[in-house]
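Good morning,

Attaching, inline, the backbone tokens for the sequence recovery test we're adding to the shared suite. The designed sequence is right after.
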């Protein structure tokens, strides 16, 4: 009788399918000062709280997590995986993102180490249909020098890497070109924020591109 009741309950309330596990990877290396850090944290919260983004997160039952990274051996999971099952879940996660303390004071830029750490986190969300590492940064790798190997490991794990390159104002795009040529995976993409003032809107558009299906 108990087994029958349980089966009926499961039929009435089927398990929610997680379309995407999305890991947001935030640069806190030495080139990010205290003001820049606040712009990143607040920009992340603003992008997540956007109504269109929130709707996409809930519609896809997306699993979200946040890591911060800097030099070699400086990576931390600062917001563990949470499923975005309701708009209230998204609002709570966004509020927590805005209040995240900085994990490291900043040193080198070990992009490969960040990718390796990020890749390892997906073992906790095996039921999600796809895994995406969303990495942002304002510098090329200058420590560890494992970016190519780490990228290959992410590809082998079936993950996608997308990127936000944070550029200084001006005509050059050195960080964008670095992420595009050495970091993103096949099928991934890079977007450019011209300074951290542009970060929230760039991230909002990036999240919509990652989470919504094109029409037509």
């Amino acid at each position: 009788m108990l087994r029958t009741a349980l089966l009926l309950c499961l039929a009435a309330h089927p398990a929610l399918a997680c379309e995407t596990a999305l890991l947001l990877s935030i640069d806190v290396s030495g080139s990010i000062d205290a003001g820049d850090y606040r712009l990143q944290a607040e920009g992340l919260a603003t992008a997540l709280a956007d109504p269109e983004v929130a709707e996409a997160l809930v519609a896809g039952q997306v699993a979200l997590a946040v890591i911060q990274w800097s030099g070699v051996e400086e990576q931390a999971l600062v917001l563990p995986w949470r499923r975005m099952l309701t708009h209230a879940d998204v609002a709570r996660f966004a509020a927590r993102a805005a209040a995240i303390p900085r994990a490291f004071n900043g040193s080198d830029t070990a992009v490969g180490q960040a990718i390796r750490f990020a890749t390892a986190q997906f073992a906790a969300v095996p039921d999600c249909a796809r895994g995406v590492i969303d990495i942002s940064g304002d510098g090329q790798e200058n420590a560890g020098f494992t970016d190519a190997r780490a990228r290959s490991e992410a590809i082998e794990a079936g993950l996608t890497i997308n990127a936000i390159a944070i550029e200084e104002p001006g005509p050059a795009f050195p960080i964008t070109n670095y992420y595009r040529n050495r970091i993103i995976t096949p099928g991934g993409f890079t977007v450019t924020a011209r300074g951290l003032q542009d970060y929230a809107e760039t991230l909002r558009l990036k999240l919509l591109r990652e989470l919504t299906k094109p029409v037509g």
